[in-house]
Amino acid sequence: MTSAYCQEQYREGNKKPSSSELSKRLTELKKTEKKQWLTEVSSVPLQQSLRDLEQAYSNFFKSCKGQRKGKKVKPPKFKKRKSKQSAKFTDNGFKLYPDSSYIHLAKIGDIKVIWSRELPATPSSVTLIKDSADRYFVGFVVEFNPRQLPKNNNSVGIDLGITDFATLSNGEKVKSPQPLKKQLKRLRKLQRNLSRKQKGSKRREVARKKLAKLHTKISDIRNDFLHKFSTKIIRENQTIVLEDLNVSGMVKNRKLARAISDLGWRSFRAMLEAKSVMYGRDFRVIDRWTPTSQTCSCCGFRGGKKELNVREWICLNCGISHDRDVNAAINILVAGGHSETLNGRGEKVSLSVKKAHLGEASTRQNFSSCPLSLSKG
Ligand SMILES: [Zn+2]
């Protein structure tokens, strides 16, 4: 509807749609018979979706003109009715009851939720989410002052890899559950099954749901592992140093793509970053050109490039024998000690500035609660 109008505008070479124009069109659509259902839902999420659409186009145009850092942004696409859906309720679109398992959403009414944790403050918005496996979640945007963990003197360097998900500078190695790899056979079977079903049939819908359920199971296992592991790292260490990996570049290598996506390096980094801010830890990222696997962590001698299959090597200068990943993790930790960090978009930010900026301001956090499954710790 409005998004189709935007695409039209864009193709005709016009500029980004204005919010007032979009709003006007929405009001007109509500009067038509075909889109009458628009009047049955609250206007709060509808207005929000227009704001989101406007933002998406603004990001896209800025990206085209080179005014936006990071990856090129593509124009917004239509949403599929069967993929993940959400409705955001702001201001007067929702109401919370004190000490209750119910929340009120405009035009929907009171719904029962199972809280996964307590809200630290009054939320500024509530998002109702239905995922592709038909599970419902509610997420809250809450502004609060982070609760700091007691300080300690430990620091850790982390080398991310494929054989071992992470190698720590203390020599510890952690394997990833790699849920996709384990479920690949079943996933392919369900995908084949779905493709054989006739479009629009009931059986196809059943097959689609089965596949969607497996997908959510895979990502749940992965996220659960990443959350537990990142929390452990944050709890135990004051300073955490990670190597900035060119994940999007690596994913272009098709052989590696699936394995890397299955590991979830990117989410892991995002989790470490968010939790560091929340708990008052020092998170540093060293740039990807630091020769962490070429240098001897003992004497600093640079032994040159080593092929990926070289797992162990002996330093030609001091004669010490190294495990490739442990040596790299130690080098990452050492490199992290030298003040400056590079943030993910290749922009130089001095650490102290970045930390003050994140640390003093209150943090916005998303809290989710799942009403259909039991709460997770
Ligand atoms: Zn050496």
Given the structure, what is the number of helices?
Answer: 10
Number of strands: 16
Beta-strand content estimate:
15-25%
The helix-and-strand class reads alpha+beta
Question: Taking strands numbered 1, 2, ... along the chain, how are they ordered across the largest sheet?
Answer: 9-8-7-10-11
What string, H for helix and E for strand, traces the elements in order? Answer: HHHEEEEEEEEEHHEHHHEEEHEEHE
Distance between the termini: 41 Å
Please describe the biggest sheet, giving its number of strands, its sense, and whether it closes into a barrel: 5 strands, mixed
Report on this model:
- The protein is α+β, with helices and mostly antiparallel strands.
- Helix content is 40%, strand content 19%.
- The chain has ten helices and 16 strands.
- The protein has helices at residues 2-11, 19-31, 43-64, 179-196, 202-236, 247-251, 254-263, 265-279, 324-337, 351-360; strands at 85-90, 94-96, 102-105, 109-112, 123-130, 136-144, 155-160, 166-168, 173-174, 239-243, 282-286, 312-314, 321-323, 341-342, 348-349, 363-369.
- Strands 9-8-7-10-11 form a five-stranded mixed beta sheet.
- Strand 2 and strand 3 form a beta hairpin.
- Residues 339-377 have low confidence and may be disordered.
- Residues 296, 298-299, 301, 315, 317-318, 320 line the site of zinc ion (ZN).
